[in-house]
Amino acid sequence: QVASVPVLIPEQPGDMESLYRAAETLQQQNRRFLADAILDPIHFGFTASLVRYHALRQRLPDAEIMLGTGNVTELTDADTTGMTALLLGIASELDIDAILTTEVSPHARTAVREADLARRMLCAAKRDGNLPRRYHPGLMALRDRKPFPYTPDEIATTAQAIKDPSYRIQLSTQGIHIYNRDGLHTAQDPFALFPHLQLKDDTGHAFYLGVELGRAQIAWQLGKRYLQDNQLSWGVVVAESEPELASGSESNSKATKVTDAYQSPGTTLTQRKKTPKT
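Given the sequence above, the corresponding structure tokens read:
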């Protein structure tokens, strides 16, 4: 014999009565288990399966429940960050105890990291009685809430004060702005800016500006924050530093280190004592 926690599923797809019978039998034996109603793929019972999870929680308010996200994240051609956040939001509302996610399809290769951050964000938001906003930007891989902090007029004012030949690059809603002491130029395509740059035979500087303008174009097209001489941030889909969470009432600049930071995939199932509902 080995220590184990059985996962209970319906005998047949959608047969919730068989799941209830198995769960109630183990409850009578004081045995621990995880009940899983099985999340179905979109157009193959997805909405009905969500209803089953709700019914399962209503029927067994104190039971430990598991939700597998792979049938949606793996079988839908869409970025997994948003799907994961939504599915874990449902799990949070239903007090689901365990999440099973997979990284089989190449487009889902960061699903574990996404689920790890999502569950901590949602847990913190639920604890605080808040919307899941301003805790961590790591699931916003493609866009930022405030991608363009400066207006074209503010950039123009800054450009007028420059007295040296080094080029500065900033973004606004109008496009890419590049300027030095010789003037300010704005375009949405970096190639339109090239004729205005006084690079002469400085290939190193040309390479540098090519890289920076390429980053700036991507950031402008997607609506991401751009800061010259810095990599673009892609959230948890590109491993950088250890994720931190901020209090929902604080800005992200005041993020505080959490104690259960993401670890490589491994055994995560631990006993959680539930408070009986009255």
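The chain is about 35% helix and 10% strand. Try to locate this feature in the token string yourself.
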